[in-house]
Each structure stands twice: as structure tokens, then as C-alpha cells.
Amino acid sequence: MLRVNIEKHLPDFSLRVTFEAHNEFLVLFGPSGAGKSLTLGSIAGLVRPDAGKIQLDDHLLFRHPDVFVPIHRRGIGVVFQGYALFPHMTVAQNVAYGLRYMQGRGARVMDMLHRLHLDELAHRYPHQLSGGQQQRVALGRALIVKPSLLLLDEPFSALDMAVRERLQADIVQIQRDLQLTVMVITHNLDDAFVLGDKLAVLKDGAILQLGAIGEVYNSPATAAVAEILGVSNIWRGKVASSAEDGVDIQWGNCRVRSQPAPVSVGEAVTFYIRPEDVKVIRPQRPIAPALRANMFDARITHFSHRGGTVVMTVVAPELPAPVHLRFPQRGYRGLNLREGGAVQVSLRMDAVRILPPG
Amino acid sequence: MPWQPLILSLQVAAAATVIAVLTGLTLALWLAKKEFRGKSVVETALNLPLILPPTVLGYYLLLVLGRSGPLYPLGVRIVFTWGAAVIASAVVALPLFVQSSRAAIAAVDPMLEKAAGSLGAPPWRVLLDVTLPLSWRGILAGTMLAFARSFGEFGATLMVAGNIPGKTQTLPLAIYDLVQANKLAEANSAVLLMTAVAFGLLFLVRHLEKRANSKRGTHA
To answer: Is B121 on the interface with A (CB under 8 A)?
Structure first.
């Protein structure tokens, strides 16, 4: 059980946060400068708050003004942004490092390497590894000391989609197996959805909303929360059928196929797709399998550039709500996309997700 | 070849290097890791020996070490001895060592040190496990620069240790005497040796620093 209630005052910024987490994933989500890193640093022991208290299980880590346990006696696993692997040590040496200060209470190096699929890489150096592999090493190194709290700082920011998804699944599994409390800092909402039990939305040094992740997403307490969460393309529908390979959702007069989810027929669900996962279908071109399910003939009602990105909104007779798209400026060159024009779009079925009931 | 001054020079340079490294490493860590008021004053003062005339430096050392200095009542009697030559060389070598090792220490990613701390390493172990292993090239380069500078030290040494053959006459001082006495053959061999040592050490330092730069971010 992690209990945090702290304040930290800097010349032009104040942090004031209170939260708890117990054997679960807590995601701290917010724009940069919201105070996420300061919060993580305070818990890890890198930053000394100006007031309040931090307690981990029966271990008082900080209490103003008399208690400040130094970082090396906190027993908290930290996976730093950019991993911070020791460049002069091999994978095995990196993972084993924390055992030097454990007096035999840690996990076994071979077990940890095996669990994270690092056996083959044991004797390599960090610079010889891919980003995903480095992330695994960082994870193994943090877990070997059997922490009861694991802190992850932007854990997937530098990884591509496939690697990211595998790692997310691994981390979820590890959290369950070890009954860990895990606190994740991220500015990527997808990470939050995959990992989070609880979501804390942070802005300007304060938690705007804290709750079960689906609940926060579905009913943002304030416009500020909705804006930070970037809610668009989030809709409600009814489960028409549910199978191992996907769920069909009745949405107004149309059917939308989504990722499989533990839902039953007839259940009302909230589902969403990120604007970048809605694709334009190019005529006279083969259509990727993931795009075949949710295709609609639509009309463009809004088309604009933002930086190097195009933001587009389309409507279709059978769609109960407008659908938002976002893609790189050069993405669909030669298609003559313009306001009022006709276009065929697809909601990538592997990107349509059903939110956990809130 | 003036053998006796050569041996004395090697001894003085070695002892001065040890002193410069021990004090310099503490200073380098302090300057690389801590922010404090007046830091730039300390840094400037530390670099003074690079710029000040050796005579000025020697004069200051005489003030500190001499008969009316604060150490004299404590029983320190090293002016015009081998020890004074060591002190003079160490003071002159110190800024070179601090510059090089401090840059190497500051180049170690602080995240790595924090990571080691989070894994249970107390600060002095973080230093031994992470900071020093990742900055040893720069520290070694600084050590060699300090040795090279000490080995060639002339002015401040002359001021505080004199030029006593067989006692405080190091090789650079011997060269001065040899040239004065027009013993050019002996002077030539000594000059050649000094040049070779200086060139060799500087070449190694350059090589080390190049390696340190290209290795940054990969393994040491």
C-alpha cells in the first residue's frame, strides 16, 4: 500500500497531490510540466517534498520535517525514462546489480533473465540491445530486489507499437504474479488504458481527477480533464455479438467490429478509437485485412492542417456521430481530400477498443 | 645525461601527482556534483596557477611554508628541501588534473547514479560502481597531464626549493645550470628526454580523451 500526501514548492510551480495505490496499477497522466516527474521523484527519494507524508506498507519514507529515507534505503524499483542501464556492465551484471546490497534476499538472476526472455542476451552490453530489450533489462534490474513498489517513468515512449504491446502484456503479467503496486507516468493514453487500474489526471501540480480508468475517461469531472484526455471518437453502443476474435457493437444503424473484450451480448458498452487509427481507403488498392471490417462511405465536413498533421472530420448517413481522423500531412497525397468531398474511411478493427465498465 | 637530477625529477613528479590526484579528485567530484554560492570564485582561484607567473606562485608558497608562515610554528620545515619541490609541482599540476577529471565525471549521466541508488547502493558505492568506472579515462588523462606538468616544473620549484645539486636540483633546473655553464652536449640529451616524455604523455592523453568521447553512451 502506497499512501502519498505531499507538497513541493518551486519558484514558479507548486505540487500538491494526495493519492493511494494498493497492489494495482496507478497511472499518472498529464501534459509535460504537470508535476508527474516531481511526484515520482518524491516517492523514489530523488526529491525532498516541502510538506506531507509518504508511506509504503509499514515503512514511513517521508514525513515533514523529520523523516527522509534516502533513495538507497527505500526499496523501490524504478525504471527510468531512457532506462539508465549501466553501460559498462553486461545484461546479467545490470540485472544482478541490486543483489550486491541485498544480503541474499533478492530473486535469482537466472530466473529473472529467463522470465524476461533475456537468457540469450546475458553477456551483451546495453549498446548492443534494441530499445525493447533495454527496457526488459531495466525492468529485470528493478525487480530483482523484490520491491513492493515499482515506478515506471514513460516506460514505452521510445518503442514501436509491436514491442510496446508485448512489453505492456509482460508488465501486466508481472504485476499480477508479484502482487506489486505499480505507478506509471505517461503522456500516452493508450499505455494508460492497457496498464491502468486507476488513473490520476494531473495538471499544474494538482490531481484533477482520480478514479477507475474507464470511469475517468467516460465521465471526465471537468472540461480540463476531457481536454487533457483528448476525448474524441468515444461512443456508446450495444454488444451485438462477442467471440474470441472480436466483438460486434451495434452503434446506431451500423455495426462496428472491435478487439475482443470480456463483454456479453446486449451489454451497453463504451468504445473508442484514436483519430490516428481511422484510415482513409485508397480506391483501386488492396485493402489491409484490419481495415476490411469497419468501412464507411462518408463525406468530409472539416479538413485542416495543424503543424505537420492533418485533422479531418467525416460524417456518414449510417454513423450516429462524426468521426475524427488525424494523419501526417503527406499521408494521403494524391487523393484530393477536401471539405465537402467524398471519402471511404475505415475504423481499424484492431484499434477499436471497448472501455472497461466504469 | 644528468642522472641524479632525472631521478629526483621522477620522484618529485610522482609524489606531486599523488598529492594532486588525491586532492584533485575530491575537488573534481565536489565541483562536478554540487552547486553552491561562489562556485565560480572557487573555479577561478583553482585555475590561477595556470596563468600566474611561477615566481608569484612560488612567493605565495614561501609565505605559507616559510619562516613567518602559518605552518612554521607547527614544525613544518620544508622550504629548500625535496618536499617543497613536491608541493610546488602539485599546486601547478592541480588545475590540469581537476579540469580533465571534472569534465569526465560531469559527463556521467546522473540518471545512472540515481539508478544505482534506487537499487540500494549508498553514495560511496555509487561512486565506486558507476561514477569512477565511467570516468576513468578522463581521470587517467588528468593524472598523466599532472605528471607531465610536475615533471617539467621549474619556476615555483626554484623559488621554494632552490637549486641545490643533489638535493633539490630537478632536471629542468639542471638544464638551466648546464646551459649557463655551456655544457651543451649534456643539456641536449636532457632537453631531448624532457621533450620525449612530454610528447609521449600528451599523445596518450589525446588518445584517451578521443576514446572517452567516442565511448560516451556505450560501454567503457
So the answer is: yes
Contact A113, A91 (CB under 8 A): yes
**Three-state DSSP class for residue A173:** helix
**B3-214: which CATH topology?**
MetI-like fold (1.10.3720)
- The whole-angstrom separation of Cα A115 and Cα A280 is 41
The per-residue pLDDT for B77 is 85
A155 vs A142: CA distance, rounded Å: 13
Give the bridge partners for B131, in sequence order: none
Name the residue facing B115 among A75, A80, A101 (closest C-beta): A80
Q: Which residue of A has its CA nearest to B124?
A: A72
CB–CB of A44 and B123 under 8 A?
Answer: no
Pairing of strands A25-29, A181-186: parallel
CB contact under 8 A, B118 and A78: yes
What residues in A contact B114, CB-CB < 8 Å? 44, 46, 71, 78, 80, 84
pLDDT, residue B149, reads: 94
Average pLDDT over every residue of A54-74: 94
Can you give the residue ranges of every domain in chain B? 3-214
CB A99 within 8 A of CB A145: yes
Mind listing the domains of chain A with CATH numbers?
2-227 (3.40.50.300), 231-354 (2.40.50.100)
pLDDT in tens, A17-33: 999 999 999 999 988 88
* pLDDT class of B68 with cuts at 50, 70, 90: confident
Residue with cell 484533477: A208
Distance from CA of B39 to the nearest CA of A (A): 22
Greatest Cα-to-Cα distance within chain B, rounded to the nearest angstrom: 66
pLDDT at res. B220: 41
Q: How far is B22 from chain A (nearest CA, A)?
A: 24
A96 touches chain B (CB under 8 A): no
The residue whose grid cell reads 469497419 is: A294
Are A101 and B118 a contacting pair at CB < 8 A?
Answer: no
Q: Do B121 and A141 touch (CB under 8 A)?
A: no
Inter-chain touch B219–A125, beta carbons under 8 Å: yes
CB–CB of A207/A200 below 8 Å?
yes
Predicted pLDDT at A235: 86
Predicted ipTM of the assembly: 0.82
Summarize the confidence of residues A344-357 as an average pLDDT: 83
- From the list A295, A301, A306, A308, the residue with the least C-alpha distance to A337 is A301
**CB neighbours (10 Å) of residue B211?**
13
Structure-derived torsion over alpha carbons of residues A194, A197, A203, A208, reported in degrees to the nearest 10: 140
Distance (Å, rounded) from C-alpha B142 to C-alpha B97? Answer: 4
